Backbone:
């Protein structure tokens, strides 16, 4: 029993080295001397009587035994964190690590800000955000909560899906490009083909679905000059005049107010995109997870969603 505290410390040093991909990288990431990490891993190997790493000046590799040990150590750490969090939550105090999977644009604009404010209110909580392109399967990587955009309602009996907000999108273009695009008259959906920026979240980046308050929904073909899965790059390309873009109004509102982007055919708007928060079951959520979802609901409700 006397060896357990030192053994756990050595295991966590080993996990840190594997996560970072080397001793020097782990030392830089966690603020520890690489020599200290090396001694901890060597002590762990001696205690277990196995080789966990192959390390030379040119090679760093985790052995098969090392991989199993790493997986067990990570699981042990997670169980310890859950035990500590459960004990603290008995006093109604959120704590522990919360892993969140979230599209890059949302993480960079809305969710990241909410997470930072949440941790300021609850110092016992750590939040880890993994950025995605918005199209991946939730929980393909370890996560407690996944944030997922979707044009259609999400239906998956294996997870709880809670709709946070409907995001209004607009078509925008740089002023010099906007002036060269003939506007579709009134309720007409006969748009001329125009240079555009394709976002691969949509299944057909060159086929845009637009809606009109009175005349319903129509699909138009656009001349895609640039395609990306990153909504922040879509905005950047629009500002540079690459083409017309479909963007959340909240993301480009200030650009419009400054005159750096103009609304294109404001009577015709892209489809709303629903933002959902998904989790395996409410019973599996910690107090920190439940409160973070409440913070997401409150934070996204304040978004300026723009034209309807």
Residues:
């Amino acid at each position: 029993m006397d060896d357990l505290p030192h053994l756990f410390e050595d295991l966590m040093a080993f996990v840190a080295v594997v996560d970072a991909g080397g001793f020097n990288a782990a030392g830089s990431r966690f603020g520890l001397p690489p020599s200290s990490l090396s001694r901890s891993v060597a002590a762990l190997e001696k205690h277990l009587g196995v080789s966990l790493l192959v390390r030379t000046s040119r090679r760093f590799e985790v052995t098969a035994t090392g991989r199993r040990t790493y997986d067990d150590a990570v699981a042990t750490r997670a169980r310890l964190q859950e035990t500590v969090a459960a004990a603290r939550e008995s006093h109604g105090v959120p704590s522990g690590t919360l892993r969140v999977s979230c599209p890059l644009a949302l993480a960079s604009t809305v969710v990241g800000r909410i997470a930072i404010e949440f941790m300021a209110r609850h110092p016992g909580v750590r939040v880890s955000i993994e950025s995605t392109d918005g199209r991946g399967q939730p929980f393909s990587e370890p996560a407690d909560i996944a944030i997922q955009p979707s044009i259609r309602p999400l239906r998956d009996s294996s997870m709880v899906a809670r709709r946070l907000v409907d995001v209004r999108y607009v078509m925008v273009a740089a002023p010099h490009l906007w002036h060269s695009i003939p506007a579709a008259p009134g309720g007409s959906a006969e748009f001329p083909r125009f240079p555009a920026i394709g976002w691969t979240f949509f299944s057909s980046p060159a086929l845009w679905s637009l809606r009109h308050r009175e005349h319903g929904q129509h699909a138009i073909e656009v001349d895609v000059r640039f395609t990306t899965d990153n909504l922040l790059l879509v905005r950047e390309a629009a500002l540079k005049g690459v083409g017309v873009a479909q963007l959340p109004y909240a993301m480009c509102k200030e650009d419009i107010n400054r005159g750096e982007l103009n609304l294109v055919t404001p009577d015709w708007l892209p489809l709303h995109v629903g933002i959902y928060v998904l989790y395996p079951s409410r019973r599996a959520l910690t107090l920190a997870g439940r409160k973070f979802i409440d913070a997401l609901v409150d934070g996204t409700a304040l978004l300026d969603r723009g034209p309807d």
